[in-house]
Automatic annotation (TrEMBL):
It comes from Methylobacterium fujisawaense. Residues 39-59 are annotated as: Disordered. Pfam families: Kdo_hydroxy (PF11004). This is 3-deoxy-D-manno-oct-2-ulosonic acid (Kdo) hydroxylase. InterPro entries: Kdo_hydroxlase. It comes from the Bacteria.
Amino acid sequence: MPRLPGYAPLKARLLAALRATKAKRSEYDHLMRHLHDALKRDETSQAESPQADVDFQPGETWGTFSDLVMHGAMGGRSMLEQTVYLPVSAQADPSSSPHRFLAAKLGRVLRT
């Protein structure tokens, strides 16, 4: 995390105003995006992470909750991704949420 670019609220507002992003990115969104990109570029972490090939028969489907898993498909035909916003306070165990995990790593509350 120390190598990730810092969050700039003014830049987040500007990108949203220019419609370069769908909405103003929070610090959480900023960190998750840069962590994902950094891990995909890091050949060491890619080589050490377990790889799984999953073959599906025609008509089969699967679902997953993956906010704490750095992931990326290396192949495949089609995918539908759905993001659902669930406030940390509404989660069964807010202290173990990805948002709180990142805040603990930073030693402070994340900015919105």
